[in-house]
Write a structure and sequence with these properties.
Strand content: 15-25%
Distance between the termini: 25 Å
Shape: flat
Oligomer: single chain
Strand order of the largest sheet: 1-8-9-10
Number of helices: 11
Helix content: 25-40%
Order of helices and strands: EHEEHHEEEHEHEEHEEHHEEHHH
Amino acid sequence: MSRQNYTFTSESVSEGHPDKVCDRISDAVLDAFLAEEPEARVACETFATTNRVVIGGEVGLSDQDKLHEYMDRIDEITRACIKDIGYEQDKFHHETVEVTNLLHEQSAHIAQGVDAADNKDEGAGDQGIMFGYATTETPALMPAPIQYSHAILRRLAEVRKNGTEPALGPDAKSQLSVVYEGGKPVGVSSIVLSTQHLDAALSSDDIRAIVEPYILETLPEGWVTADTAWHVNPTGKFVIGGPDGDAGLTGRKIIVDTYGGAAPHGGGAFSGKDPTKVDRSAAYAARYLAKNVVAAGMAEKCTIQLSYAIGVSAPLSIYADTHGTGSVEARDIEAAIPQVMDLTPRGIRTHLGLNKPIYQRTAAYGHFGRNPSDDGGFSWERTDLVEALKKAV
């Protein structure tokens, strides 16, 4: 039997964190190519440091001669991302940062394994394992520690950007230690919040006075008590932030992007990858399936694992675990999944509508636990498979 009484901690990082700046740029580049050609192949990596952004990777278009036409836009896209995030520091400013574009055409050897041909279906863009997870402990069917860590930083970003709290800077990290009783989240034993501030005279106490009301309004009522420990800017001043303070790299916050450590992770990053890359699309599919299993009342918790081989269309395995909370046998869920969803790379992209420029918005505050949007963003958060799953088990 799983533990019922414990404390679990997850962290989040803001859109201005150096790694998230890079994720944002990589996904903005991806969106730009998908807007031009929905079947574009993109694997875009970004590195950022003081006064410099370097973008590399590969792009595949149906007409590779057009690739050079689009390359001039990379500089503009990069600067727009940095401006929107809010960086206007002397050593990291959207107007003066040096942008180096090293993108090139996709490897023909990778393309031949992925592209559909007369005698085979389109294959997966790489081998690997992908996990999805869902739990009833929050309305979004996400683990509470990561969901509320994200929510705190989203709220602080809102009041920073709308001018309500002009003293706050773009770079921030949050961390919540959530207390569970009877397997349910009931409170917070500690809150850690480190946020960049633009006024060097502000102390840690000053920053706490700014952020505390927003944190309290974000967390469920009663979760913060007199016993909750607060650590706000515990090292003191935090004026130099972003890539000027620490280098950033695409794909380095994969636990922040997913379930905050509450569920397994296959190891593949998401940002900058088009949806033929199952690192991304199959992880979205696994979350979609797990969420629908839980939404259908088949379990209070569900983990789904999918596995793939490069160039092979169908998943090699499907695994389900309901962690002792299921009203349906896990093997029956495993048998039902391929009846309700085509899990080939193209099947996933078609079912979830992934060949769209919908990825830049995923780059901060989590890829999961968000509301699906009318333009197809966060389609993997829908619960429209509930009835089909019930019929299939």
